[in-house]
Design a protein that fits this description.
four-stranded antiparallel beta sheet
């Protein structure tokens, strides 16, 4: 991308500071912005049929977060996106993203790659939940996102892995032995 095109894109992003525990999206609202997290960690979560909170994803520094379904379909979100730590983000609105996709082919390609990456991560997570043990899912999380363990409460990690807090404690204890 040429410097002039890059400046066009950058001009569409706005800075935002998000305090720990604050939300950038709540369920039933339409997701109107996509955030690039410069610093900090966020998570998305929803509630299961019993009313228990289930963490569906973590978003550390240098990743994008939004509810893609709500953002692109313009439909109410079914998840919450919450800051786990104080965060600094750069966000782009739906309208500005669409205008940039139409005006800047390089940004459209970047957006396509980002969506493909998000889909790939979702598919990998779904298959992992079906085919891997909790121990393997925990090991993969430590390997792929080590910063999560430094900033995320264990109850969120346990719900992300689909296990009870006590099971996570046992898995962590065993991992330390090895």
């Amino acid at each position: 991308m040429s410097p002039a095109r890059a400046e066009q894109v950058v001009a569409k992003f706005n800075p935002m500071k998000v305090k720990r525990n604050a939300y950038i999206l709540k369920a039933n609202a339409v997701c109107n912005a996509s955030h690039f997290i410069e610093n900090g960690v966020m998570r998305s979560y929803t509630y299961d049929l019993e009313g228990s909170e289930v963490t569906t994803a973590f978003f550390p520094s240098n990743t994008y977060t939004s509810d893609l379904l709500s953002f692109f379909k313009r439909s109410p979100a079914k998840e919450y996106i919450q800051a786990i730590t104080d965060c600094e983000t750069w966000y782009i609105t739906y309208e500005d993203m669409q205008a940039s996709f139409h005006a800047i082919p390089e940004f459209r390609e970047f957006g396509r790659l980002n969506i493909v990456n998000q889909y790939s991560l979702l598919k990998e997570r779904m298959l992992s939940n079906l085919q891997e043990t909790a121990e393997k899912r925990y090991s993969d999380l430590i390997y792929t996102q080590p910063e999560i363990l430094q900033h995320v409460p264990l109850k969120y990690i346990a719900s992300y892995l689909g296990i009870a807090d006590t099971s996570l404690s046992r898995i962590r204890k065993e991992a330390l032995k090895n």
